[in-house]
Every structure is written in structure tokens, then in C-alpha cells.
């Protein structure tokens, strides 16, 4: 009788594979212990669902294709409350549909992972072309005051790794976590090394142990309440209405609402040490920086190396966690550089929190490219050279 | 002999119990409850046969029929 | 199948099943939701459900407030989406019993698509759909079941849309158990809810329920005795309906218009999603 971990290994196949970013997300989920996927097909994320549909039955999990993305998110939350680790995948139009239930997951502190393989929008847009047009939507797509965690891998390998990290953060902090790639990264193939169990961490949500003192939404010292799955006899009432620590609706109370919503936000912002991820190149010796994320950052590696060859003191700050925004890291760079080039595959979204963090300490120059094509190294190099002449 | 207890914090004075009491043992009280509604009262206790239809029909679980002073719990 | 109901007292139900700190309920006086709650508790007591292993799921609306009053796991979700959340619970843990409370708007308006597909999949759950012909929580707007000509806050001149017959829809979709009862007679709803819980697969019990505040008041149904009589006079048992249609006089057939069919519309067997998924996993698991 195989253990679940043994089943996972057999289901995933060889240690080294040549797969798409979408596949890597699915593999990462399975490695993280995901046993439930509810989703809906949408280009360019469909492959994540297809992979999960193939793998989950083989490891005794459940794949259910719901009638739309709204139902997918709903089924995800229901399943998470039985104690399962859960995931869905979608793209822009589906992500838009998921917003209401995403807010519900935040409000009810339901762990879940949502992969958005971004495509060019708005609306139906360019279904097969990559873009990063949903970055702000990730932050503010659902209504009301809330925090959200969003990770932006830049390679197929990192897509697997960040999906595992997403599950860990989701379980640890009892909150939805978003993994954002794009159509390019989702559909390109790269070498993937599937890590062994001793090569990564696995985190489980904190469990309630004492029925007598159980209060479903009373926070622990780290602001995370203990979780009791449905069917465990703890009899939890879960609602999206403003609720007290017993989970009972108290929608008319300003004080309870204030306390709840602030705690939910602080629960995330108090744990930046767990969440913040980034990569730095030439940080100590940089005059002109590029701040980039996702597949765009891949191009920028090349640009920085070429710039260095031409004598420009260029550097790259690659953001991996986007939300909560790592303002302290950006601010640190702003102290040392004269200018920041911010290339984005959108008309300028993350450039706004960058500007806010920079607070005027250096020039911030966005470089927008939309239409589904990546920035070329040549054009970014030219932009970088242009920034050289900024006054210190 | 039966008596009734009304949970006056829960009773909304809808009078379903009074309307459908098969023996007309209940009537709407003239007084107000603390909620400002007229609760039921067992005006003709001798007519009450303990059928508990009032309990079955009460939307608020506000009425309890007790037999000879014992509450069925 | 026992036809007699074991007598339970309100006091017993209160202590065994209710989250008493949530009372008094938010429901208006004359609202039928309290009756639905009462009958549901009778039914689950009848069946002998373990409330440690039962989850009550709801959407948004007055009927969706019901899970809060029951001392069990409850999931009060987003408008129209209860069936999706419930499906997730059932698919992830088929050991849990799921009972859904929804309304005519929540369940068949915004929730229509989920109703369709949850029945199509035949997810094993009991859905108690409280039909008061209106969106009550928001003040009484027209709903998919608002009768022809019905007055509401958004049909101040009378409803021009054709109302949806939810039970006929569920029956056509193949739901193994479909029933409709008004709240005015307790025994049938209690029995149907118990049958629905016992039924393998999707069970729908539509409860015709008065809403004096939001619907009744605008449509000449204000007093509770009058309302309950209206339900008795305007609901006809299925077989009686069929008899009148076949053998009744033209006047008797005409009299059926403006009335609603009640009874058990369908009671069949059908493989559930959970059974089929388990069979698939048994075949494919490594």
C-alpha cells in the first residue's frame, strides 16, 4: 500500500522533464499536497487543468470541472473547508469572474491557490498572447479592504517552486495566494527538475485541538485562527458577513468590522518576512536599475549583461512576490540608483507602487509594451542608455 | 393538565399557535411582551390536550407545552 | 418507511439542534422560514443525522440565513453559489452529509446555472429551496418565480414575465427526488425532507413560503390566517391536478390556472457523481 507521497512520485514521472509552465504549476501543486482541483478551461491556462485531471485520480484526489469560474472558486472553498489543499487555474476573463468568491475566501480565511496564466486583455483580447495586464486586478480585483499575496515566477522551474511556496503561504496564513504567470511562460517548454521531498518545505494549516475552548475566528499570536475542518465535530459557522470571533454575523457593528478587517490585513502584512521574494543583480554597484518581474525579467538579465559590457553600471531587481508590494526593497534600491527602468507587458501597473516606494529619490521610467510580444533586448538597452544621461 | 411556556424574547406575536390550536385553548393575550407584541396565553387550559401542534407550527421555537409541570427536554 | 412521526418537543429541538445565542431569528412575524427550520429539524431528527458530520450550506437571502441557527458546521456563501460550494464539500469529502438552504432567487435566478449542473452531475445533497415569489431580503423585488401580474418593488405595474416552475425544471434535468410543499401543512414537508436526505443523489424540496412583509403586503396577502388559507386554496396535489386535467369540466380545468402543483414530482434512482468518481479512482489510482 503506497503512501500518498509515493503515489505522487509515481504519478509525476521522471525527475527531469521538458514541460510547459502550465505543467510545472500542476506538478508544483501535486508536490505541495494538493488533492482537489476545480476549474474551467480557458486559454492559455487549460493545460494546468488537463494535467490535474490526469494526475489527481491516480493519486486518489478529485478533479471536478465546474460550469464556470465562479463555481470553480466556490467548489474550491467548499473543498478547502473539508481540510483539503486546493487549487484552480484560469486567465483574465475567468479571473474576473472569480473575484467575488476570492473575496469570500479572504474574509473566511480559506486556504487556496489560484493560478492566473495572464493573457492580453481587456475583454476577450488576445487569448493566446502573453501579457501582464492583471497585476493591479490581483491587488484590488475583489471589493473591499483586503490584502492579497501574489507571486510572479519567471521560469518553468520557478513556476513549480512558487506554486509550492504559494500552497505553504496559503496554509500558514489561511489566505488565498495567487500565482501569476502569462501565456508565454505558461506555454513555453523548459527543462524542469522535480525536487525530492527533502528539497522543499511543506506547511499545513494550524489545527484546532480543543473543542471546549475553540473559537473559529479567534486569532492566535500570529493573527491566524486555528482551523477545524467540516465534519470534525467542531461545528464551525463560516460566513462572508462581518463576524465575531465565534464566526457569528455581526454586520451592524462598526467595532467588530474594524477589528476583523484590520486583523485580516495585518495577518498578511505582519508576515512580510515569509512572503517577500526577489532577486538582485549588481545591487551593490548599480547606477541605472531595471525593476522587472515575470518573463520580462528574463529579457532584462540579458540587457543588464550587455549594458555592463558597454560600461553602463546597470543592475536588475527582479520582483518575485508582487503583493504585498516589497516597498522596502524598492526603496533601498532607490537610495542607490539614479534611475529605474520599469518594463512591463502592460500600459504601466506595477510602476505605480514602484513610484510610491521610490518617493522621488530617483527617476522612474516605465516602458510599456502590449500586443502579446515580449520587449526586445535591443529596445530596453536603448532605453537604459537613454536613462544614463539623467542627472544624479 | 397542561401549561405553556412562552419564550418572550423569541415570540413575534404571529398568532399561528392561536389560529391553529385545534381546541381553541390558546388566545392572543391583551398585554404586551417586552418585544412589544401580544404573546399567546393558555386561556382555557382545560381544553389543552397536549397535541403540541402549536410547537410544531411556531416559527420561532417560542412555545413549549408542559404536562403536569414537567418539561419534556 | 414509517409514516408516523415521533413526537418531538420544541424544547428538545432547541437544546439538540439550535445555536440558541443566535435567537430570536431575523425573520419577520408571519415569515414561513421559521416553519421550514422547524420541519427540517424534525426531518433530521427523524433520519437520525449526526450533526457532527452534517454541513448546512446556503447562499444569500433570508432563507440563506437558516444555517446560522443550527448548531452544526455551516457555510453561508455568496449569492447564488451555494450549490457550487456544496459540490466542493461533497466531492472532497463524500462522508459528510450536505443540506443546502436556498431561495427562489438565490437558487434559480442567479443560481440557475449551478442548479442545472449540480443536478446534471447528480451530486448527493438535499436542497431545501424556499420559494416566496420574491427577493425578500432586499425588500421585495421581482424574482424568477413571481407570478404573472405579481406586484413587487421592481414590478410596480405588475410582473410581465412568465414565472419559472423550478420543480418541473429539476424533474426534466433528472433529479432523483423532486417535491414541492407549502409550509401550511407540516407533515408532508417533514416527510419529504427526510426522504430527500435518505435519497442517493440530488434531492430538491421546494417549500412554498409566505413573505408577508416583502411580497404578501403588495399582493393583498397581509394577515397570516388569510395567507395560510391562500396557500391551502391555491395548491393542488399532483394526482388531483392530473385527474382534473383529464376528467374535469372546463370550469374545473380553468380553476387550475393561478394554482400550483404540489407533491412529489419525481422519485427515482440515479448514479451520483460521488459514486462514479470513486469508481474512476478505484480504476485509475496507482
List strands and helices in order, with pairings:
The complex is a heterotrimer of chains A (392), B (73) and C (286).
Chain A: H1 4-12, E1 16-20, H2 21-31, E2 34-39, H3 46-58, E3 62-65, H4 69-80, E4 85-90, H5 92-107, E5 112-120, E6 126-130, H6 135-140, E7 149-151, H7 156-173, E8 176-182, H8 183-187, E9 189-193, E10 237-239, H9 254-269, H10 272-275, E11 278-281, E12 288-293, H11 294-309, E13 314-319, E14 321-323, H12 327-336, E15 339-344, H13 351-358, E16 363-368, H14 377-387
Parallel strand pairs in A: 2-3, 2-4, 4-5, 5-8, 7-8, 12-13, 12-15, 15-16
Antiparallel strand pairs in A: 1-9, 5-6, 7-14, 11-13
Helix pairs in contact in A: 2-3, 2-7, 4-5, 11-14, 12-13
Chain B: E1 2-6, H1 16-20, E2 26-28, E3 40-42, H2 53-57, E4 63-67
Antiparallel strand pairs in B: 1-4, 2-3
Chain C: H1 10-17, H2 33-47, E1 54-58, E2 73-76, H3 82-92, E3 97-103, H4 104-108, H5 112-121, E4 125-131, E5 134-135, E6 141-142, H6 166-172, E7 177-182, H7 187-198, E8 202-208, H8 224-233, E9 235-237, H9 238-247, H10 250-256, E10 260-267, H11 273-284
Parallel strand pairs in C: 1-2, 1-3, 3-4, 4-8, 7-8, 9-10
Antiparallel strand pairs in C: 5-6, 7-10
Brief rundown of the structure:
The complex is a heterotrimer of chains A (392), B (73) and C (286). Chain A is an alpha/beta fold.
- What count of helical segments of chain A does DSSP give? 14
Strand order of the largest sheet of chain C: 2-1-3-4-8-7-10-9
Give the terminus-to-terminus CA distance of chain C: 42 Å
Net shape of chain C:
globular
CATH homologous superfamily label of chain C: Thiamin diphosphate (ThDP)-binding fold, Pyr/PP domains
Outline the low-pLDDT stretches of chain C: none
The CATH topology of the largest domain in chain A is what?
Answer: Rossmann fold
What does the main sheet of chain A amount to?
8 strands, mixed
Please work out how many helical segments of chain C DSSP would assign.
11
Q: Which fold name is given in CATH as the topology of chain C?
A: Rossmann fold
Question: Which CATH-level-2 architecture of the largest domain in chain A?
Answer: 3-Layer(aba) Sandwich
How helical, in percent, are the residues of chain C? Answer: 25-40%
Rg calc of chain A: 21 Å
Total number of beta strands of chain A = 16
Sheet-strand content of chain A, in percent, reads 15-25%
Shape of chain A: globular
| Beta-strand percentage range of chain C | 15-25%
Radius of gyration of chain C: 19 Å
Q: Major beta sheet of chain C, specifics?
A: 8 strands, mixed
Amino acid at each position: 500500500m503506497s503512501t500518498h507521497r509515493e503515489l505522487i512520485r509515481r504519478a509525476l514521472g521522471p525527475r527531469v522533464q521538458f514541460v510547459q509552465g502550465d505543467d510545472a504549476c500542476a506538478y508544483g501543486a501535486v508536490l505541495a499536497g494538493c488533492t482537489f482541483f476545480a476549474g474551467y478551461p480557458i486559454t492559455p491556462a487549460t493545460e494546468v487543468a488537463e494535467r490535474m485531471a490526469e494526475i489527481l485520480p491516480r493519486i486518489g484526489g478529485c478533479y471536478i470541472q465546474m460550469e464556470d469560474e465562479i463555481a470553480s472558486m466556490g467548489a474550491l472553498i467548499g473543498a478547502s473547508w473539508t481540510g483539503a489543499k486546493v487549487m484552480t487555474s484560469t486567465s483574465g476573463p475567468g479571473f474576473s469572474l472569480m473575484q467575488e468568491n476570492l473575496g469570500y475566501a479572504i474574509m473566511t480565511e480559506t486556504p487556496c491557490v489560484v493560478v492566473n496564466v495572464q493573457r492580453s486583455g481587456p475583454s476577450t483580447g488576445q487569448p493566446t498572447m502573453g501579457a501582464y495586464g492583471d497585476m493591479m486586478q490581483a491587488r484590488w480585483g475583489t471589493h473591499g479592504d483586503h490584502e492579497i499575496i501574489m507571486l510572479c515566477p519567471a521560469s518553468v522551474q520557478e513556476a513549480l517552486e512558487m506554486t509550492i511556496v504559494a500552497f505553504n503561504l496559503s496554509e500558514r496564513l489561511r489566505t488565498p495566494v495567487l500565482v501569476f504567470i502569462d501565456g508565454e511562460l505558461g506555454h513555453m517548454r523548459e527543462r524542469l527538475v522535480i525536487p525530492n521531498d527533502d528539497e522543499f518545505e511543506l506547511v499545513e494549516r494550524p489545527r484546532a485541538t480543543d473543542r471546549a475552548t475553540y473559537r473559529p475566528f479567534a486569532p492566535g499570536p500570529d493573527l491566524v485562527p486555528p482551523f477545524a475542518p467540516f465534519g470534525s465535530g467542531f461545528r464551525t459557522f463560516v460566513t462572508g458577513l462581518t463576524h465575531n470571533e465565534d464566526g457569528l454575523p455581526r454586520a451592524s457593528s462598526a467595532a467588530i468590522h474594524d477589528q476583523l478587517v484590520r486583523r485580516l490585513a495585518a495577518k498578511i502584512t505582519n508576515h512580510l518576512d515569509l512572503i517577500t521574494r526577489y532577486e538582485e543583480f549588481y545591487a551593490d554597484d548599480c547606477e541605472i536599475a531595471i525593476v522587472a518581474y515575470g518573463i520580462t525579467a528574463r529579457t532584462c538579465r540579458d540587457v543588464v549583461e550587455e549594458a555592463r559590457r558597454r560600461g553602463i553600471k546597470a543592475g536588475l531587481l527582479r520582483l518575485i512576490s508582487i503583493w504585498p508590494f516589497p516597498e522596502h526593497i524598492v526603496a533601498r534600491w532607490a537610495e542607490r540608483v539614479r534611475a529605474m527602468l520599469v518594463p512591463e507587458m502592460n500600459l504601466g501597473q506595477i510602476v505605480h507602487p514602484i513610484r510610491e516606494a521610490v518617493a522621488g529619490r530617483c527617476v522612474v521610467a516605465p516602458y510599456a509594451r502590449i500586443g502579446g510580444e515580449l520587449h526586445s533586448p535591443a529596445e530596453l538597452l536603448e532605453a537604459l542608455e537613454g536613462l544614463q544621461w539623467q542627472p544624479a | 393538565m397542561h401549561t405553556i411556556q412562552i419564550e418572550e424574547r423569541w415570540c413575534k406575536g404571529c398568532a399561528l399557535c392561536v389560529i391553529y390550536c385545534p381546541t381553541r385553548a390558546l388566545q392572543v393575550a391583551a398585554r404586551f411582551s417586552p418585544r412589544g407584541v401580544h404573546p399567546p396565553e393558555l386561556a382555557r387550559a382545560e381544553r389543552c390536550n397536549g397535541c403540541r401542534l402549536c410547537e410544531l407550527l411556531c416559527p420561532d421555537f417560542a412555545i413549549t407545552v408542559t404536562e403536569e409541570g414537567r418539561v419534556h427536554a | 418507511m414509517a409514516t408516523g412521526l415521533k413526537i418531538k418537543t420544541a424544547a428538545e429541538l432547541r437544546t439538540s439542534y439550535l445555536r440558541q445565542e443566535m435567537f430570536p431569528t431575523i425573520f419577520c412575524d408571519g415569515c414561513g422560514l421559521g416553519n421550514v427550520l422547524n420541519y427540517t429539524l424534525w426531518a433530521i431528527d427523524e433520519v437520525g443525522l449526526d450533526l457532527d458530520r452534517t454541513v448546512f450550506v446556503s447562499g444569500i437571502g433570508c432563507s440563506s440565513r437558516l444555517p446560522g441557527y443550527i448548531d452544526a458546521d455551516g457555510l453561508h456563501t455568496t449569492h447564488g453559489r451555494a450549490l457550487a460550494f456544496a459540490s466542493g464539500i461533497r466531492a472532497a469529502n463524500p462522508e459528510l452529509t450536505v443540506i443546502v438552504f436556498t431561495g427562489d432567487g438565490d437558487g434559480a435566478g442567479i443560481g440557475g446555472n449551478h442548479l442545472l449542473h449540480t443536478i446534471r452531475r447528480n451530486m448527493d445533497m438535499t436542497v431545501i429551496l424556499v420559494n416566496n415569489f420574491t427577493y425578500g431580503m432586499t425588500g421585495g423585488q421581482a424574482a424568477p418565480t413571481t407570478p404573472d401580474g405579481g406586484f413587487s418593488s421592481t414590478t410596480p405595474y405588475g410582473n410581465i414575465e412568465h414565472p419559472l416552475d423550478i420543480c418541473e425544471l429539476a424533474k426534466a434535468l433528472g433529479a432523483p427526488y423532486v417535491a414541492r410543499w407549502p409550509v401550511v401543512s407540516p407533515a408532508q414537508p417533514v416527510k419529504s425532507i427526510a426522504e430527500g436526505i435518505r435519497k442517493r443523489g440530488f434531492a430538491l424540496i421546494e417549500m412554498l413560503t409566505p413573505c408577508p412583509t416583502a411580497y404578501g403586503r403588495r399582493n393583498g396577502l397581509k394577515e397570516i390566517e388569510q395567507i395560510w388559507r391562500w396557500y391551502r386554496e391555491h395548491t393542488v396535489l399532483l394526482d388531483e391536478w392530473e385527474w382534473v386535467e383529464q376528467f374535469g369540466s372546463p370550469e374545473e380545468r380553468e380553476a387550475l390556472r393561478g394554482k400550483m402543483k404540489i407533491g412529489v414530482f419525481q422519485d427515482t434512482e440515479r448514479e451520483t457523481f460521488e459514486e462514479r468518481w470513486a469508481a474512476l479512482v478505484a480504476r485509475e489510482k496507482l
